[in-house]
Specification:
With 401 residues, this protein is mostly helical. Helix content is 71%, strand content 7%. The longest helix is centred in the middle third of the chain and has 52 residues, at 141-192.
Length: 401
């Protein structure tokens, strides 16, 4: 979701200014038109991060999952919508989310639909608002919140699995870095200090290299690295590195091994989004449009986006997907089976499971390679240090003290 600052004219000729959340300028203009506003000016605002904020407080994926589950439980018990809102507001610990829910409750109490109240906050994804709209249209908000909660649970579990898988390699890298710092800053300088500055020219070649590396790794260079890292972090928080990060993320899909990993990840999320929305009763073209908007890799997203218009023109779904070069051939083949059998929802769930398993297996293989690689590199570095020190001791008689 992106924030767009708009300047419009209402039916009474009055100028109206504000900010609206949408995937792109087209959707923003459509939302403003639905409010009866004539758009005069529309500009995208720079965002500091992916997660939306209110009062400096983040509304996390866990908050959205808990919100959906609580609504599902309360509505399932027969509680009215306004009472469900009041109950959740009282139990919510996130101030930002509480303020948003209070605003929604006020809008619903004044006569707005639940869907419109959620949309007007500009804080919720098109997937969530579309799911709520379908549930409200058929008079079954409980199922709508239940379906969205299932999608959020998948997203949370997915991220946790990736985070857990990277914990040990990250710890191994950190421990290796600290070990090398200790060796180069504490052990090596003290060892070579016994020879004096004048005798360093007669050291063996490996010892000279080791001594030069120790000198290069001084405290100033460490402070410089930490400073650059802190600067990059601040730039990221301010949103200045977003464009660079987006370009790197979009180009990585063409890197042989990493590109396959990104493709599996994006297709898994895309397929689960399609399954979740079709299960909620959202029409196929609307579900496809929203699911494409959830794809983070621009190259893949731009490759699939034209499919919406082609399918709307009457082309077969499988035929359209078969012409998308980035997609594995298995995807259009499975969609063709689902299209003929009338069970596209189940087919997309099968595609999700297939690419989810492929992604996890690929990550496991990478981790299996990363761990011994780190250990091997550390062994070579430590071995080089030990050999250099041994050669220095063995040639001590030739060194002028």
């Amino acid at each position: 979701m992106n924030d767009f600052a708009y300047r419009c004219v209402d039916v009474g000729g009055k100028n109206v200014r504000g900010v609206i959340a949408a995937v792109d300028p087209t959707e923003a203009k459509l939302k403003l038109k639905e409010r009866g506003l004539l758009v005069l000016d529309l500009a995208q605002k720079r965002q500091a991060g992916k997660r939306f904020r209110l009062g400096g407080k983040k509304i996390s994926d866990d908050d959205l999952y808990n919100l959906s589950r609580e609504f599902c439980i309360l509505l399932g018990s027969g509680m009215k919508v306004d009472f469900a809102f009041r109950t959740i507001i009282e139990s919510t610990s996130n101030p930002g989310l509480r303020d948003v829910l209070i605003k929604i409750l006020q809008d619903v109490s004044s006569g707005k639909s639940v869907t419109q109240a959620f949309v007007d906050t500009g804080k919720f994804s098109p997937l969530m608002t579309a799911t709520i709209h379908v549930g409200e249209s058929v008079g079954d908000l409980r199922t709508a919140f239940d379906n969205f909660a299932a999608y959020m649970r998948f997203q949370i579990n997915f991220k946790n699995e990736i985070r857990n898988a990277m914990t040990y390699p990250a710890f191994l890298l950190f421990a290796s870095f600290v070990t090398l710092i200790a060796i180069f800053k504490l052990i090596i300088p003290r060892f070579f200090s016994i020879f004096g500055e004048g005798s360093l020219g007669s050291l063996p070649l490996p010892a000279k290299i080791l001594y030069s590396m120790s000198n290069a790794l001084n405290w100033f260079s460490l402070y410089l690295v930490v400073g650059v890292a802190a600067l990059l972090w601040l730039l990221k928080k301010a949103g200045y590195t977003a464009a660079l990060y987006t370009r790197l993320r979009n180009s990585i899909v063409f890197v042989p091994l990493l590109g396959r990993l990104v493709l599996y990840l994006e297709l898994s999320r895309f397929s689960y989004s399609m399954y979740s929305m079709l299960k909620s009763g959202i029409e196929f073209l609307k579900a496809l449009s929203l699911s494409v908007g959830l794809i983070q890799n621009q190259s893949l997203r731009e490759a699939i986006e034209p499919a919406v218009g082609q399918i709307r023109e009457g082309k077969k779904i499988a035929e359209v997907f078969s012409h998308i070069a980035l997609l594995p051939k298995l995807v259009p083949n499975m969609i063709a089976v689902g299209e003929e059998g009338g069970n596209l929802r189940e087919i997309f769930f099968e595609i999700h499971q297939m690419f989810d398993e492929r992604f996890k297996n690929t990550v496991k293989r990478l981790l299996i390679l990363i761990e011994p690689t780190i250990i091997t590199v550390m062994g070579l570095v430590v071995g080089f240090i030990v050999i250099s020190l041994i050669l220095t001791v063995m040639s001590a008689s030739n060194i002028k003290l």
